[in-house]
Amino acid sequence: MQIKDVETSNTGLDVDNVTKIYETQKGNILALDNISLHVKPNEFLALLGTSGCGKSTLLRIICGLEKTTEGKIINQGKTITGPGADRGMVFQAYNLFPWMTISENIQFGLKQKKHLVDK
Known about the structure:
GO terms for molecular function: ATP binding; ATP hydrolysis activity. This protein is α+β, with helices and mostly antiparallel strands. Strand 1 (13-24) and strand 2 form a beta hairpin. 16% of the residues lie in helices and 28% in strands. It contains two helices and four strands. It has a domain at 13-79: Rossmann fold. The longest helix is centred in the last third of the chain and has 11 residues, at 102-112. Strands 2-1-3-4 form a four-stranded antiparallel beta sheet.
């Protein structure tokens, strides 16, 4: 992993000055504060830290499941604006989307790749 002032590239993954603030009734919670890093293609990255430090929040943003408060994520030269078939995440829970059935969860990836058409 290279931590750097991100100079976006067309290869790899760039996390560019990402901040995430959750707004709650009790006040704002700063989950990520100005995070920048670059992961080269075929490079392996491990995120380590204590519970509540923002690891899962960063992964959810990279996967497009959450939006940043500030900053951007660029994968292979394209800004991430939502979920995509070019990224995946293994969740701690057994289901991807809890509001979907097991079958619908399995079909989700296939539909993204256009290997399965809704009936």
